[in-house]
Amino acid sequence: MPDVSPFVILFAAVFTNNILLVYFLGMCSFIAVSNTVPTALGLGAAVTFVSVLTAAAGWPVYHLVLVPLGLEYLQFIVFIVLIAALVQFVEMVIERTSQTLYVNLGIFLPLITVNCAILGLCLFMVSWSYGFLQSLAWGAGSGIGWFVAVVALAGLRQKIRFSKVPPALEGAGITIVVAGTMAMAFMGFAGMVAIR
Amino acid sequence: MDVGLLLVSAAVLGGLAGILALVLIVADKYIADYGICKVDINRDPAVSFECRGGGNLLMALAERKIFIPSACGGQGTCGYCKVEVRAGAGSVLPTERMHLTRTDIRRNVRLSCQIKIKNDLALRIPAELLAVQEFACEVEKLEALSHDTKLVRLKLLDPAAIAFKPGQYCQLNVPRGYLLRLVPPIFEPIFRAYSIASMPKDEGIVELIIRLVPNGICTTWVHTLLAEGDRVTITGPYGEFYLREDSERPIICVGGGSGVAPVRSIVEHLFDKGTQRRVDCFIGQRALRDLYWHRENVARAAHHKNFRYIPSLSGLEPGDAWEGETDFIHLVVDRSIDDASDKECYLCGPPIMIDAVIAVLKDKGLPEERVYFDKF
Fold first, then answer.
1. How many Å apart are CA B89 and CA B21, to the nearest integer?
2. What pLDDT is stored for residue B166 in this prediction?
3. pLDDT of residue A195
4. In CATH, what number is assigned to the domain containing residue B369?
5. Both B257 and B371 in a single domain?
6. Mean pLDDT, chain B, as a whole number?
7. Minimal CA separation from A163 to chain B, in Å
8. Which pLDDT does position B45 carry in this prediction?
9. How many domains, chain B?
10. What is the pTM for the complete model shown?
11. Are B182 and B190 in contact (CB under 8 A)?
12. B12: nearest CB among A65, A89, A107
């Protein structure tokens, strides 16, 4: 277990080690659902929620079940199953409790199941041999980091809609250019904190 | 790799998956429990009902024998199952939006297959739809009309008679046993819409004209497995495409491909009633081997001065002995009709044919409100 405070990990996961802009995980839903700020807010919140839950559930499953039995190689399939079940669960809860959130997230929730950011954060947390609290912080931080990035991109895309974009770059082109520029900006944080 | 490790891996993976499945099942039972919900229809206690929440509205209505038309079987792709929901459905879902016009949304029209019953609902369903019934039938006759098209004559058993207007359609249910045997199996109910090709006079039978569609679920079943004497169920009648009998205007009928079915019902019905209206009937097919309902029409044209029959084969095959028209049907209509301003027009066939024919007829002065069509 690296000797890093969970608070540092939380901060680092949002800024210096942003799962999206530094590790480039979860790009598909990042591009697909960043049309407007409200939907981005919804999906970002859902991803944050699911990532905390997965980290909280994935850590004990890995360290208390897979490691003692020497079955670390099952981590991929186990995490995938775990994430799928959690997303189903979250969908059920959201549908029951908030109609507004369900309308905005309804068709996007299944996207989280195959969101590689979530699987990625689980794999990072075990390969860096984080403790439970550190994993929780990493999960929460990654979720919030994804949230920040997707909302920022959605805000930019809303502005771009009223800007003069060269015809060849309209749509996906300019979105990827903007996302790349954001990633470069986040590179400025690189190396500020060590988290492993 | 030793067997022990293999067994442990399998047990761990299976166990984990099992636990997660159990959690989901329990959650489904408790979190997704919406209790008993009231569904009010037209404020009429005779048709309103109560049901367990959680299911979708289309299926709940079908269980109570209220048949809302649907061609895709509740997948949200056909957009037919529109129902006016006055209260209780929440806001429009993204999956409905592409099928609803702005007027629909203003009038609280929703896609019933996308609405989950989570609380009490208040609906308004037009009386015609409430009149739709389910019929148990026996296949009385199967007849090959052409190389890929069959006439299926169904004898109605329960109820034993159907009241419909020529041009309307019914839905044929594909039997569950067949769907489960498919690879991969299909678990949800599947029904497909077919125009009724027989006359309303013959109220004890329904004739459908079904053309084999490559890889079609329903048509493959009809063409390979269905046999005379089999029991099937249909629902109907549906549709706004039907003959307007209160008018005296001359009629143009255009049928393309298997769109001949409702045209057959309309034309046979008119002449059975001894109509004095002028009827121009255009039939478009590919080749000679696709042409059916031909001799009847030739004979009818010889007997009735007010009937004109113009078939056209647009894709003749080598060896076809054919003297008639060989153009696409809209070109034939263009040549054969001079002035359409006083006429009434019934079109059934593929969308591209219908659009082309409408464009031609509009040029000839036919007002839009007298064009009735059924695209499929």
1. 30
2. 94
3. 81
4. 3.40.50.80
5. yes
6. 90
7. 27
8. 87
9. 3
10. 0.63
11. no
12. A65
**Tokens representing A125?**
């947390």
- Quote ipTM for the complex: 0.73
Spatial CA neighbour of B137 closest among B217, B58, B207, B59: B207
Range of the domain at B45: 36-129
Contact, A85 vs B24, CB < 8 A?
A: yes
Amino acid at B200: P
Residue B31 domain-assigned (yes or no): no
Please give the average pLDDT of every successive group of 10 residues along chain A, which has 196 residues. 88 90 86 82 85 91 90 89 87 78 68 82 92 94 94 91 87 88 88 80
- Specify the DSSP class assigned to residue A62: I
B112 and B160 co-located in one domain: no
Same domain, B112 and B136: no
- B23 vs A89: CB contact, 8 Å cut-off? yes
pLDDT at B325 over 80: yes
Length of chain A: 196
Distances in Å between the Cα of B26 and the Cα atoms of A82, B19, B21, B29, B116 are 16, 11, 9, 5, 20
**Last residue within a domain, chosen from B197, B214, B238:** B238
Residues of A with CB under 8 A from a CB of B: 61, 65-66, 69-71, 74, 77-78, 81-82, 85, 88-89, 92-93, 95-96, 99-100, 103, 106-107
